[in-house]
Design goal:
The complex is a heterodimer of chains A (251) and B (431). With 251 residues, chain A is of the alpha/beta class. Chain A is built from ten helices and twelve strands. Chain A has a six-stranded mixed β-sheet, sandwiched between helices. In chain A, strands 2-1-4-5 form a four-stranded antiparallel β-sheet, with helices on one face. Chain A has a two-stranded antiparallel ribbon with strand order 7-8. In chain A, a hairpin with a 5-residue loop joins strand 1 and strand 2. In chain A, helix 6 runs parallel beside helix 7. Residues 1-10 of chain B have low confidence and may be disordered. The chains are: A alpha/beta (251), B alpha/beta (431). Chains A and B meet through helix 2, strand 7, helix 3 and strand 8 of A and helix 9 and helix 10 of B. The complex binds adenosine-5'-diphosphate and magnesium ion. Adenosine-5'-diphosphate is lined by residues 11, 18, 36, 38-44, 54 of chain A. Residues 42-43, 87, 172-173 of chain A line the site of magnesium ion.
Chain lengths: 251, 431
């Protein structure tokens, strides 16, 4: 269970408050969606949860299964089961995708006191998962995200998620810039990981994705906090009327 | 470059002490004229433009500063590669611990023996390429080498060499001050790989002259020894014929002072030259200063040259790159590429670069770039967010930074060996 309580975050370098008392709970096994206007702090929330530098937490808390996320290094949060699919996956020239993923999988295993995955076993697993995401062997050999199309980058994020088998998956606009087929592929990838225990927090602007990944709860975020939560019908309302009415409601 | 009176007067102590070796047929002529050259030029001083970023004092002073011998249980580089190994101890060739100098398509002879014989091709290379490389910039340490060297290998390649030749340098003395001069002639259609590894001496002055005839190929990979206090001035002079290929890679790991000069003259059409290097230095316990100085002259049509240099520096380490591409009139369709990059692992270190292009032909494509930067914070966070601890993620990014230089090594087995050395160094030098 991911529990965010009254989270307040400002930029480290400037006096700019971005999250202004954000509260949100995603029980295990559930899929929650976050929608909200650009600039409302959705990406900031996902970065702060995963431990990116440049932000200062000025109040509140975030825990995963009772463990304080904010006190940990980014790699410890990952090992604790948190995964962020980046809105803008980073290109890393010179580091092979395969090397990267194997290092990641084995680092997490090691920190949990588990045995490392052998090269052969890893290869077998990744090939099967890559295939279902239509990621070809050539893409696995290339440097991380370098020369990947927008859609390939997003599918690569889902592949990483599938390999790392996290407890809590945060997907930041994974559907942005994808055509219908690519989006279906991503949604299938996510659905394949739904096992009744794993939780998802899906940040999106579009109902379209939520047609494929059915959310239990939809939250609306604006100006650094959740202004409304509800069932899947809330996403439809946004799709039809935009955010104006919702924003007016709380104003 | 004009020679000023003041300059020749400077390092007199060293110059006065120089006596050319007696004997040697063609060699004695070459040594004599090199000595004259040297006296005309004088040794380099700190005031020389060409030594703006690197102080030559330690390389020019009369006696070498002693250097502690490195104690390590690391296996020597290239030890798992099937090679013909020639061992130099403190800069002196030792046939007893070397392999038989016999290999198909290759003639090898120690310089001392070859100098006593009438080897016409050696006469046309020894000190000749060095002399040609003295213009437009003086390289007095190379002239000093030609004038005084008695150690080195004389190698002629007439076909495809079945395995690499490895010059393996070991140190036993803390004070050895060595001068080594190798010459290589790659005949038409010849193809050879020359490996060099080890620190050679407390102070080493090394020259390698390579003459590649039409269609010949020369591959060179060297590592310069991990001894912290050693000092080295190494020159490569290469002359390329039509459709020939020259590829050289250097790994510099540690060392108080390393000056690597490379002078390449492309004289035949459709030839290719690559000079690449990876340097890693950590000034924490010992000073590290590494300098790559390259001069490539294109004097033929449709030739390609590549310079790829990467330096990883921390704790006050210094990296220097001076690289010039000169495209002579008529050298059309020249493709010249040059990149030099410094990766700073802290704020104390420095990377000094002077890239230059001088082009006198109109149909050429030359590009050069030089960058200096730190580890990319976004890339580091991305790796860590996947569970890779900071130290390991940093290592991955350092290795990825160096990768482009290593990719210039054609042979995969050799490249992997070099990669392993870098990996080990990076692990030893984590914060
Ligand atoms: N590192 C940063 N530097 C400056 N402004 C930032 C930074 N990170 C976020 N912001 C600002 O914080 C606000 C929220 O941004 P973001 O979290 O990206 O919103 P969303 O993902 O909801 O579109 C925006 O006004 C954005 O400009
Ligand atoms: Mg965003």
């Amino acid at each position: 269970m991911l529990k965010i309580e009254n989270l307040q975050v400002k930029l480290e370098e400037e006096d700019k408050q971005i999250l202004k008392g954000l509260s949100l709970t995603v029980p295990s096994g559930e899929v929650h969606a976050i929608m909200g206007p650009n600039g409302s702090g959705k990406s900031t929330m996902s970065y702060v949860l995963s431990g990116k530098g440049g932000y200062e937490v000025t109040g509140g808390s975030a825990t995963l299964d009772g463990v304080d996320l904010l006190a940990m290094e980014p790699e410890e949060r990952a090992a604790a089961g948190l995964f962020l699919a980046f809105q803008y996956p980073v290109e890393i020239p010179g580091v092979g995708n395969m090397t990267f993923l194997r290092t990641a999988v084995n680092s997490q295993r090691k920190s949990r006191g588990e045995d490392e995955m052998s090269a052969a076993e890893f290869l077998k697993v990744i090939r099967a998962k890559a295939k279902s995401l239509k990621i070809d062997a050539e893409m696995l050999k290339r440097p991380v995200n370098v020369g990947f199309s927008g859609g390939e980058k997003k599918r690569n994020e889902i592949l990483q998620m599938a390999m790392l088998e996290p407890k809590m998956c945060v997907l930041d606009e994974t559907d942005s810039g994808l055509d219908v087929d690519a989006m279906k592929l991503v949604a299938e990838g996510v659905n394949a990981l739904r096992d009744g225990k794993r939780s998802f927090l899906v940040i999106t602007h579009y109902q379209r994705l939520l047609d494929h990944i059915k959310p239990d709860v939809v939250h609306i975020m604006a100006d650094g906090r959740i202004i409304k939560s509800g069932g899947p019908e809330l996403a439809l309302e946004v799709e039809n009327n935009g955010y104006a009415d919702l924003l007016a409601e709380v104003a | 470059m004009a020679v000023s009176k003041a300059k020749s007067a400077a390092p007199d102590a060293r110059l006065a002490a120089i006596i050319s070796p007696v004997g040697g047929k063609w060699a004695s002529e070459a040594r004599k004229s090199a000595l004259t050259r040297l006296h005309d030029m004088g040794l380099p001083t700190r005031r020389d433009e060409y030594w703006k970023f690197t102080r030559p004092d330690e390389l020019t002073k009369a006696d070498a500063t002693p250097a502690t011998l490195l104690e390590t249980d690391e296996k020597p580089v290239f030890c798992d590669i099937d090679r013909l190994r020639l061992v130099f101890v403190d800069g002196v060739f030792d046939p007893d611990i070397s392999d038989q100098m016999a290999m198909e398509h290759v003639e090898i002879e120690p310089l001392a023996n070859a100098a006593e014989k009438d080897i016409h091709w050696a006469r046309d290379i020894y000190g000749v390429l060095e002399n040609s490389g003295q213009s437009p910039v003086n390289r007095p340490l190379a002239a000093l080498n030609t004038a005084t060297a008695t150690q080195g290998m004389v190698i002629r390649v007439t076909g495809k060499a079945p395995r690499p030749i490895c010059l393996h340098y070991v140190r036993t003395s803390e004070t050895a001050d060595a001068v080594v001069h190798h010459i290589v002639k790659v005949e038409a259609g010849g193809d050879v790989t020359l490996l060099e590894n080890g620190p050679a001496a407390a102070r080493i002055n090394k020259v390698l002259e390579v003459d590649i005839a039409d269609g010949g190929a020369f591959h060179h990979v060297r590592t310069q020894g991990r001894d912290h206090e050693r000092r080295a001035a190494a020159h490569i002079f290469a002359r390329l014929g039509t459709e020939s290929s020259f590829k050289s890679f250097s790994l510099t790991v540690n060392g108080a002072l390393t000056r690597n000069e490379c002078v390449i003259e492309i004289l035949g059409d459709n030839a290719h030259a690559t000079i690449a290097g990876a340097a890693v230095g950590d000034g924490k316990t010992h000073p590290f200063h590494q300098d790559d100085t390259v001069f490539i002259t294109h004097d033929a049509v449709n030739c390609e040259s590549r310079q790829v240099f990467k330096k990883v520096l921390r704790n006050g380490a210094t990296g220097v790159f001076q690289g010039k591409i000169l495209v002579k009139p008529g050298a059309q369709k020249t493709d010249g590429y040059q990149i030099s990059q410094g990766l700073m692992l802290d704020d104390d270190s420095q990377f000094l670069a002077k890239p230059e292009l001088e082009i006198y032909a109109d149909d050429v494509a030359c590009s050069h770039g030089s960058t200096v930067g730190a580890i990319d914070a976004d890339a580091l966070f991305y790796l860590m967010s996947r569970g890779i601890p900071r130290a390991q993620a940093t290592d991955l990014l350092v290795l990825s930074f160096l990768a482009a230089a290593l990719e210039e090594i054609e042979n995969e087995e050799i490249r992997k060996d070099i990669f392993g050395r870098l990996e080990a160094w990076i692990e030893r030098h984590r914060n």
